[in-house]
Q: What sequence folds into this?
């Protein structure tokens, strides 16, 4: 009898511990759970943050050492956590049209660098065309160092999009090289034509900061 009573007391104690620990476990799980939506909004996808309204229907995006104007109805994609209320700690950014069929890209570091992922042509894409132009320092008055411009067009193997890329290297051979990359990803020629003028204005609006 005493043995049976002892066993029952042990069993009740076990249940009591389980009931006390479960709410805490649930609270801990809730507190430690990562909110993926919050991460997406703050680190990856940003709409209208770090931007200034301009008078011509555009917003001004500010990166580490550059700013650029983009259409006000586009969505900004940034792979960097926001650093302040004014700008993002990033050398590159993406800007997607409201229809989702066009995407602008800019890469503008303080000096030189490589946006390897963007310039790379993966197995899922086909290189359609590429050409380069080199202007030597001696060939253009007032130019500092050489200038190398490269154009590329790639297409996805499944035919869902094309990408046109412009890479501009300046002051090559001086030890203080600059590198800027622009790109436009588009569903088809019709979507490219619809945003061609906005893309040209986007490229022309880039301003590079000094130290």
A:
């Amino acid at each position: 009898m005493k043995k049976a009573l002892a066993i029952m007391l042990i069993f009740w104690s076990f249940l009591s511990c389980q009931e006390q620990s479960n709410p805490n476990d649930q609270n801990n799980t809730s507190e430690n759970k990562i909110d993926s939506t919050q991460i997406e909004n703050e680190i990856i996808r940003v709409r209208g943050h770090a931007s200034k309204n301009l008078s011509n229907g555009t917003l001004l995006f500010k990166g580490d050492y550059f700013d650029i104007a983009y259409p006000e109805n586009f969505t900004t994609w940034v792979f960097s956590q926001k650093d302040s209320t004014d700008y993002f700690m990033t050398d590159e950014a993406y800007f997607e049209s409201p229809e989702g069929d066009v995407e602008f890209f800019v890469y503008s570091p303080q000096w030189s660098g490589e946006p390897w992922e963007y310039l790379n042509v993966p197995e899922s894409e086909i290189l359609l065309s590429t050409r380069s132009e080199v202007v030597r320092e001696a060939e253009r008055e007032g130019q500092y160092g050489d200038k190398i411009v490269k154009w590329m067009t790639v297409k996805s193997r499944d035919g869902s999009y094309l990408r046109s890329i412009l890479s501009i290297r300046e002051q090559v051979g001086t030890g203080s090289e600059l590198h800027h990359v622009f790109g436009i990803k588009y569903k088809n020629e019709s979507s490219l034509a619809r945003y061609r003028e906005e893309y040209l204005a986007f490229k022309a609006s880039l301003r590079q900061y000094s130290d």
In short: Residues 1-44 have pLDDT under 50 and may be disordered. Residues 43 and 81 are 5 Å apart (CA to CA). Helices lie at 2-32, 36-44, 116-119, 189-194, 196-204.
